[in-house]
Amino acid sequence: ITEGDLKKIYETALRIAKERSLTTVPVERVMTKEVYRVKVDTTVREVAQMLMEYRISGLPVVDEEDRVIGVVSEADLLPLTGMRGSALGRFKKWWRERTTSPKIYERVGEVMNKPAITISPSDHIGKAAALLNKWGIKRLPVVNDEGKLIGIVSRADIVRVIGEVNW
Length: 167
Description:
The protein is of the alpha+beta class. The radius of gyration is 20 Å and the shape is elongated. It is built from 8 helices and 5 strands. The strands form 2 sheets. The chain has a 3-stranded mixed sheet with strand order 1-2-3. The chain has one domain: CBS-domain, CATH 3.10.580.10. The longest helix has 22 residues.
């Protein structure tokens, strides 16, 4: 066995270890358990206030039994302003100038994305990463077997795990 052979074996083993870590770390280990949420009849104004106050970009929408029925994000609110793309700074400015617009009294149920793309706490972070990538979203509500919200996992949560693994 040559030094080059050993290097190839090491690189292959390292790649397999990295891939395995994504399929062995459960979502419940990295998810945020305390999750802000809104009901379907919450106004757009209230959602916008929450997004700014808590410095977040989206919220799960739940029914009366805390089952996830949709997700609302800054991207869902921006069309109400006539803006395009991710422009939270411009949204905040617009918001301050136009808090009397009738559109801000629309209900979240009218602008949310539904059905919500969700994940189980026992699913691995590799599956979460694949769903986030496939759907072009930033967060996944984590639900139990009854569809009730028990957490949220974001792209940042997954990146943090990848960064914490000592390669």
